[in-house]
Amino acid sequence: MRKLWLWVILLMSFAPTQAQTQPITLTLAAYAVPREAYAKIIPLFQADWLRQTGQEVIFEESYLASGAQSRAVVGGFAADVVALSHEQHVTNIVNAGLITADWQDNPYNGMVSASVAVLVVRPGNPREIFDWADIAQPGIEVITPDPATSGGAQWNVMGAYGAAYRGQVEGYEAGEAGALQFITDVFINVSVMDADGRESFLTFERGIGDVAITYENEYFAGLAAGGEYEIIYPSSTILIENPVAVVDVYVDQNGTREVAEAFVAFLYTPEAQAAFAESGFRPPVIQIDPDIDVTPEVEPTPEATAEGETQFPVIEDLFTIEDFGGWEVVVPSIFGDDGIYTRMIAEVKGQ
Amino acid sequence: MMQTRTLTTLNTSRTPQMIFWGVRWSALIYLSVLIALPLIVISVEGLRGGIWSFWDSITRPAALSAIFISVWTAALMTVINMIMGTLTAYVLVQYRFPGKRWLDSLIDLPFAIPTLVTGVMLILLYGPQTPIGGWIEDQFGMRIVFSSPGIVLALLFLGYPFVIRAVQPVLASLDIHQQEAAYTLGASSWLTFRRIVFPAILPAMITGGLLSFARALGEFGSIVIVSGNIPMRSQTAAVYIYGQVESGNLAAASSVSLVLMAIALLTTLLVDYLARRRTAHA
Fold first, then answer.
1. Do B246 and A149 touch (CB under 8 A)?
2. Quick one: A24 and A45 in the same domain?
3. Closest residue of B to A190, CA-based?
4. Residue A169 in domain
5. Does A291 reach chain B within 8 Å, measured CB to CB?
6. For position B49, what pLDDT does the model report?
7. A193:B229 CB<8 A
8. For an interface test with A, which of B230, B235, B244, B255 has the most A Cβ atoms less than 10 Å from its Cβ?
9. Chain B residues closer than 8 Å to A192 by CB
10. Does any domain span residue A298?
């Protein structure tokens, strides 16, 4: 009997410390592009969390195409945190009832990284492409992914469409008609439409096409991998924003809410943002007022290019998807069954 | 002694019957869970919006052209492979040469290679920046990959084993005396092939061809890489369906899948019919 008491006391003295040091597992479902950035950020967060709570965090990371990742989470893949390329993919998870809190309730609207739609050309810019208007010239071969399969490709189309809509493309009238005419002329020139952004840029790297419409971060990633090409910033282009969110239903099931929220908050710290910047992402833009303030709050590492410019040049006329009513308006009206783009591409390529 | 013996015989005669029932039912259940159930789900999903929405989904220009491109590329591949596959099978059965066994096992490789790899391989081989691809583009002004020839090429690669493996056993079991008799009667080897060998292997050629056709209809992995994926020009039905799924348009995706399934079903029924006719003849 006395022995039993001893055991109980012994066990109880162990219990609290055990609960504290018990490692916790956090599942991250991300799209494939920021993989390198997360490879740097995750160890930083693990150290930070260990220092603050004495608890070890084990990460389970899944990297897939953004749309596929979104479908997997809706289908029951119990990820605690999702990091996707396209707001619509988070909206799908919200509509499935898995994200119940307002995930955009932070100064950054839930957007953890940003980029812009740009043009990438061959070394020396032999076809003399300086802005959007030049890629609509007859005989220019353009590469861009298929907006039907790639959420990312929709940014490209909206970059071109939006610039023309705002009257920023020479030779095209501002407004819907001019914008439609412009993307029609561009897509006449499109010769390969790969399924996703990475594959599309790979095709360009393999020597196909005169110009690729892509994202700034893709260019930086390609450059880091030893690619040889030049980036052309259009005078007017779209701000690409990548959302991150805690999946409420799953974190409550997994008992990981606290650490999941801490991880998402950590992504906005200067050290995490520096990792994103190294992978070519712009810091997120504060969107408290509808007029976008382009000044980043968190400074990325000030890397300078050969010309002495900062890593992320300021775009003269930067617009966002909100200027066109947000994705919930744009997806049906531009990319839906009877959307402007869908009808245009059938007509252009059907000839 | 006598009685125990009868009992054992009774027992042993009942056991095979139960095994038979077990085998039959597990096969049926397996078939329905693995094949029938998913097919039913796709059919229900495709027809959920009613027949008009189904019709609307499959008659969109991009959908129609995608189905058409899938069918013609698969059909062209089938014709080429029926000829070249038969030729290969003929060579493998009739002739002896060093490395024959090695070559014979090489043929099944396309079954094992992920088709995505096939696609990447074709681009590395025939891309416009490669010697072969560049030469063809210069000489003929024609692009192999990122265009419809690339689709046919990818399908040729993955459809190759079907015809060979269908024709090979038939060729091997052919009665050599018939051919010898034909030679003795003064028939040329071409005449012998046409009159003796060809009629015997034709059903197997068609069976193999149609199987590869059905397989090619749904091919995705290699085509998404090599086709260039231009709607109305080089986008096949499988890639179109992928686009619809990615855009959250499951109904349209299922509708077009239903059309593909119907075409594949018709081909397999045809194969079945031909196979039955062949056994009836034999």
1. yes
2. yes
3. B230
4. yes
5. no
6. 84
7. yes
8. B230
9. 146, 228-230
10. no
A32 in a domain, yes or no? Answer: yes
The boundaries of the domain holding residue B1 are 1-47
Do B58 and B129 belong to one domain? Answer: yes
Pick A146's closest partner by Cβ from B232, B243, B249.
B243
CATH number of A108's domain? 3.40.190.10
- B156 to chain A, closest Cα gap in Å: 22
A86 & A227 share domain: no
Of A146, A191, A346, the CB nearest to B146: A191
Q: Which of A193, A206, A346 sits opposite B228 (nearest CB)?
A: A193
- Give the number of beta-carbon pairs within 8 Å between A and B: 70
Rg (Cα) of chain A, in Å, rounded? 23
For residue range B13-34, list pLDDT tens digits in order: 567 788 888 888 999 999 899 9
Q: Using the beta-carbon criterion (under 8 Å), do A346 and B232 form an inter-chain contact?
A: yes
One domain, residues B232 and B270: yes
**Going by DSSP bridges, is the β-strand pair A111-121/A230-232 parallel, antiparallel, or unpaired?**
antiparallel
Chain A within 8 Å of B71 (Cβ-Cβ)? no
Residue A120, φ and ψ in degrees, nearest 5? -120, 130
Residue A345 and residue B231: Cβ atoms within 8 Å? yes
- The answer on A338 and A218 residing in a single domain is yes
Nearest CA to CA, how far is A321 from chain B (Å)? Answer: 18
Domain that holds residue A66: 2-112+242-278
Gyration radius (Cα) of chain B, Å = 24
Say yes or no: A224 and A253 in one domain: no
Query: Residue-wise pLDDT tens for chain A (351 aa)?
Result: 556 565 655 555 555 454 557 899 999 999 888 888 999 999 999 999 999 999 999 999 999 888 889 999 998 999 999 999 899 999 999 999 999 999 998 888 999 999 999 999 999 999 999 999 999 999 999 999 999 888 788 999 999 999 999 999 999 999 999 999 999 999 999 999 998 888 899 899 988 999 999 999 999 988 888 889 999 999 999 999 999 999 999 999 999 999 999 999 999 998 899 999 988 999 887 544 444 444 444 444 444 333 334 578 889 999 999 999 999 999 999 998 889 999 999 888 877
Does residue B61 belong to the interface with chain A, where contact is any CB pair within 8 Å? yes
Give pLDDT tens digits for B101-139.
898 889 988 888 999 999 999 988 998 888 888 888 888
The number of domains in chain A is 2
Question: Does residue A150 belong to the interface with chain B, where contact is any CB pair within 8 Å?
Answer: yes
The number of folded domains in chain B is: 2
- Do both A122 and A18 map to the same domain? no
Please tell me which residue, B275 or B140, carries the higher pLDDT value: B140
Cβ pair B128:A194 closer than 8 A: no
